[in-house]
């Protein structure tokens, strides 16, 4: 009977935390729905941007472009635009350049070489394009199947770095590292602030002669140091154990990792502001981390997502974090070249810090 009475008492305490109960039951359902929507798409490779420079304007080039459009998001652009989309914007994994007189040489049974500018860092999308090129080979059979007759050869040229190929580890190790760092930050910030309330520390801090921004900033700086060390250690583990590339500039990797963790730390403070009890921290933290990871390209490439979710992903902190890491590690970009990503991360962190500063309460009053 005593055991039953203790059980009933704990159940009453759990039921009193209505928000925690809702989070426990509803949040996992929301996560399942988001991940299911992200993975169940029939678009396939149609969402992969494939710039084509048509310098031929002949029947063979037209037939190839038409065949590519059956499977890819083909855009006929200039050579300069194609290079920008692949090398600078990183919107396309590859661009195909069809040279002048391609059709004329083919009809005369003379071989030609088409150039493909590639970004091997987007290796999965690049592999999908190569598969589509094989399909286009069959679909252009009415023109004599130029690929099988070896009248057309493809010359790949990497314009984003030194390496010509990457493996799934280049996507998985940084992606899972970011996910675990984000999850750790959300849990640690949320639980630490809740524990201060239990211990009465928050009440004492509310009357301390310290500015609220300094209070919150100091707490987040401690998490920033731990989170940055965690991320760098995970990347170093991937480098020494699995051969993960870290790029040409260790300084750039460290600074980018610091900017990524700083923005995530401030974002974790915003999430923590909505967590009122320790019981809420686990489901809310898991939900936020898994949703951001699934939509931000940490689990799988963004092209696997439906177009609507790709647009949503462009505004997420995980998307920009993954992009910045891949730029310095796989594309060997300098800090100047990733200045856009760094600026977005800094703004993301600053805005998140101001929001958290406004939402947090000490001693019953808002921290600001």
Question: How much of the polypeptide forms β-strand, as a percent range?
Answer: 5-15%
What is the average of the pLDDT values? 79
Strand line-up across the major sheet = 2-1-3-4-5
Number of strands: 7
Count of DSSP-assigned helices: 14
End-to-end Cα distance, whole Å, is: 49 Å
What does this entry look like structurally?
The structure is a single chain. By secondary structure, the chain is of the alpha/beta class. It is built from 14 helices and seven strands. The chain has helices at 2-16, 18-39, 59-69, 79-88, 102-107, 123-139, 169-199, 201-206, 212-242, 250-273, 278-295, 307-313, 317-329, 339-359, and strands at residues 49-54, 73-76, 94-98, 112-118, 152-158, 361-362, 365-366. The strands form two sheets. The chain has a five-stranded mixed beta sheet, with helices on both faces. A two-stranded antiparallel sheet has the order 6-7. Helix 7 crosses helix 10 (250-273) and helix 7 runs antiparallel to helix 11. The longest helix has 31 residues, at 169-199.
């Amino acid at each position: 009977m005593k055991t039953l009475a203790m059980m009933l008492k704990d159940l009453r305490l759990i039921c009193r935390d209505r928000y925690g109960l809702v989070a426990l039951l509803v949040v996992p359902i929301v996560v399942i729905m988001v991940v299911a929507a992200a993975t169940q798409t029939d678009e396939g490779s149609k969402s992969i941007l494939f710039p084509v420079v048509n310098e031929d304007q002949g029947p063979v080039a037209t037939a190839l472009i038409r065949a590519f459009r059956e499977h890819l998001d083909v855009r006929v652009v200039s050579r300069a635009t194609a290079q920008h989309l692949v090398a600078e914007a990183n919107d396309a994994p590859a661009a195909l350049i069809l040279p002048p007189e391609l059709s004329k040489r083919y009809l005369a049974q003379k071989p030609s070489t088409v150039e493909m500018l590639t970004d091997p860092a987007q290796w999965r999308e690049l592999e999908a394009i190569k598969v589509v090129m094989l399909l286009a080979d069959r679909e252009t059979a009415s023109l004599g199947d130029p690929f099988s007759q070896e009248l057309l050869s493809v010359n790949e040229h990497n314009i984003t770095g030194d390496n010509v190929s990457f493996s799934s580890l280049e996507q998985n190790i940084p992606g899972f590292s970011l996910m675990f760092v984000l999850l750790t930050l959300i849990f640690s910030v949320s639980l630490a602030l809740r524990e201060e309330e239990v211990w009465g520390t928050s009440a004492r801090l509310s009357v301390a002669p310290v500015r609220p921004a300094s209070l919150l900033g100091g707490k987040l700086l401690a998490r920033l140091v731990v989170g940055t060390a965690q991320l760098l250690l995970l990347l170093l583990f991937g480098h020494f154990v699995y051969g993960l590339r870290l790029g040409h500039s260790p300084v750039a990797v460290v600074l980018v990792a610091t900017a990524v963790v700083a923005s995530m730390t401030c974002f974790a403070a915003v999430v923590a502001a909505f967590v009122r009890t320790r019981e809420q921290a686990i489901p809310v933290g898991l939900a936020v981390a898994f949703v951001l990871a699934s939509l931000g390209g940490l689990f799988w490439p963004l092209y696997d997502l439906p177009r609507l979710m790709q647009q949503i992903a462009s505004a997420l902190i995980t998307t920009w974090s993954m992009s910045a890491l891949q730029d310095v590690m796989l594309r060997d970009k300098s800090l100047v070249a990733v200045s856009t990503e760094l600026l977005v991360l800094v703004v993301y962190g600053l805005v998140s810090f101001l929001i958290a500063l406004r939402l947090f309460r000490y001693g019953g009053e808002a921290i600001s």
